[in-house]
Design a protein that fits this description.
alpha/beta; 6-stranded mixed β-sheet; 4 helices; 6 strands; elongated
């Protein structure tokens, strides 16, 4: 994966850094990991890593996007999609710079995005659900929130901890459809 999304609920959940300072390589078995750049924004921290094989002539770039309080601090709810839009933008840039330019037929072959929170629950699940909802609205102009929520629950029981978690999903989809109706119609 060339992207990792880290979602912590607050600074007290923050893990100690598991990487070295900028430009100090760290050896891990048959490759080295080097933090190449670190950018702090109001809502996000973006870290770019370079992974290099020790045995072969191969290197790989990876971006980690970290944020606290997502989606709790997202008001209005549309702001929850800012993180997703940032992840999509980097993914598109990474695909465009790869050997094969992205097309409709190759976009499903894009590397997976790793999404995690420290509890492995609602934050990561909500991010993945909203990412999926955005795809469904853009491609099919329809979403079955219940079906997606149930699928996520079957893969990770307990991911939706209470009714407000599910209501968040419904409100987010309502926001997406509101934006869909505001877009200019294609001729």
């Amino acid at each position: 994966s060339n992207q990792i999304v880290v979602l912590n609920s607050d600074e007290t959940e923050a893990c100690d850094p598991y990487w070295l300072p900028v430009n100090e390589p760290m050896e891990c078995d048959s490759f080295t990991v080097t933090l190449k750049d670190e950018n702090f924004d109001i809502d996000f921290v973006m870290r770019d890593f370079l992974l290099q094989s020790i045995d072969e002539d191969y290197e790989f770039n990876c971006r980690m996007i970290s944020t606290c309080y997502w989606p709790d601090s997202c008001s209005p709810i549309r702001t929850a999609f800012e993180l997703i839009d940032k992840v999509r933008l980097y993914r598109a840039q990474a695909m465009a710079s790869s050997v094969m330019a992205p097309t409709a037929s190759t976009s499903h072959n894009a590397p997976s995005i790793i999404v995690h929170d420290l509890s492995g629950g609602f934050r990561a699940g909500a991010f993945c659900a909203l990412y999926t909802f955005q795809d469904l609205v853009n491609l099919e102009s329809t979403v079955n929130v219940y079906e997606v929520a149930k699928l996520f629950h079957l893969k990770r029981p307990g991911i939706w901890q209470n009714q407000s978690n599910l209501m968040f999903l419904y409100k987010a989809v309502e926001c997406l459809f509101g934006e869909l109706h505001l877009r200019p119609k294609k001729s």
